[in-house]
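Duplicate of #3305? Posting structure anyway:
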């Protein structure tokens, strides 16, 4: 019973370490992705500014050039909208990751309680064994 308790304790400690590693990795990933989205948004703003400046410089050009420029601006606007949607999804993923981290923390707390209960049960069993063998076997849970 002691070896089972030791094994369970080692497994619970290992699970806690694993959960902590996952939380750290998720946080790093969310932070890196957020930086990437921020840079991409800035790049899209720069492209849109360049397109606007180009449009101003081509004011006297033909309608075919203007139509082409409008299409490019529409593409830049669509890309910026896509980046905004991706940013929103990133925040949703980050929120979900933090919620999962909270659930994992709650699970870790519950396993700690279980470990304490198992340790108490093991000590009670050992005490019963030392005080008379199988006394109280039929009285489990009373």
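Output from current build:
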């Amino acid at each position: 019973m002691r070896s089972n308790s030791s094994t369970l304790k080692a497994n619970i400690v290992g699970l806690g370490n694993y959960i902590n590693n996952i939380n750290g990795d998720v946080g790093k990933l969310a932070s890196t992705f957020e930086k990437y989205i921020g840079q991409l948004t800035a790049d899209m703003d720069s492209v849109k500014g360049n397109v606007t400046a180009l449009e101003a410089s081509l004011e006297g050009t033909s309608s075919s050039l203007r139509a082409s420029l409008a299409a490019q601006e529409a593409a830049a606007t669509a890309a910026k909208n896509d980046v905004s949607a991706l940013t929103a999804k990133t925040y949703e993923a980050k929120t979900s990751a933090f919620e999962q981290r909270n659930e994992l923390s709650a699970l870790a707390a519950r396993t700690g309680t279980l470990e304490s209960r198992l340790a108490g049960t093991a000590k009670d069993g050992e005490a019963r064994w030392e005080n008379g063998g199988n006394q109280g076997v039929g009285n489990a849970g009373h």
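Confirmed duplicate; merging threads. The chain has a mean pLDDT of 82. Residues 127 and 133 are 9 Å apart (CA to CA).
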